[in-house]
Amino acid sequence: MYKELTSFCTDNTIILVAVSKTRSNAAILDLYQKGQRIFGENRVQELKQKFETLPQDIDWHMIGHLQSNKVKQIAPFVKLIHSGSSLSLLKEINKQARNNDRIIDVLLQIKIGKEEAKSGWDKSELLEQFENQNISSLNHIQFRGVMGMATFTSDEEIVRSEFSELKSTFDQLSESYFNDQKSFDTVSMGMSGDYKIAAEEGATMVRIGSLLFQ
Ligand SMILES: *Cc1c(COP(=O)(O)O)cnc(C)c1O
């Protein structure tokens, strides 16, 4: 499956994040040996432990809900945070990045799915923060784009319309607040069950776990 997925991603110029949460170091090393260098985790403790025990040239992405009081633990090494989902969290990431003399890459997680439990910005709320310049002043963060999770449903049209909405939010942010800067280039959407639809709707990064590690 790894080969199939990497060629799908290459064909569509998409970056593959191998979601390795709950997987063993041995399983991760197996993919590493095949050439995979980007792995995503959703818990701080596990992310930190894997960073410390696996090869140093792995890029570690934080893809899950992040509590402000845990940012400190991953700030020295995390490569990309997909879950930038509130102003207080962004401020804490900015602060810890500054303490580590780093600029950390972050995606704005936007709520597109219907499940209440899913975190992320409401689009209107996010635009308001940009209008008030609360976000653009965080100069130890490099905003790279957006992330979202579609509703967990077998109805493809719902999934497609949510991905399409995320892509258009990305386009709007890029134009209005990032001057179409080249560094604002990432639309992280699509998982094992819906990555093909995500690709068709403009994903530039997919996060795949179960399909890769079965
Ligand atoms: C677990 C997870 C994934 C991967 O899900 P699969 O269905 O196993 O591919 C992607 N994104 C997030 C945020 C996750 O927590």
Task: Give a quick summary of the entry.
This protein is α/β, with parallel strands linked by helices and 214 residues long. It is 39% helix and 18% strand. The chain has 8 helices and 8 strands.
List the helices and strands and how they pair.
Blueprint: H1 2-11, E1 15-19, H2 25-33, E2 38-41, H3 44-53, E3 59-62, H4 71-74, E4 80-84, H5 87-99, E5 104-109, H6 123-131, E6 141-147, H7 156-177, E7 186-188, H8 195-200, E8 205-208
Parallel strand pairs: 1-2, 1-8, 2-3, 3-4, 4-5, 5-6, 6-7
This protein binds pyridoxal-5'-phosphate (PLP).
The site of pyridoxal-5'-phosphate has 14 residues, from strand 8.
Structure report:
- The protein has 214 residues and is an alpha/beta fold.
- It contains 8 helices and 8 strands.
- The protein is globular, with a radius of gyration of 16 Å.
- Pyridoxal-5'-phosphate binds next to strand 8.
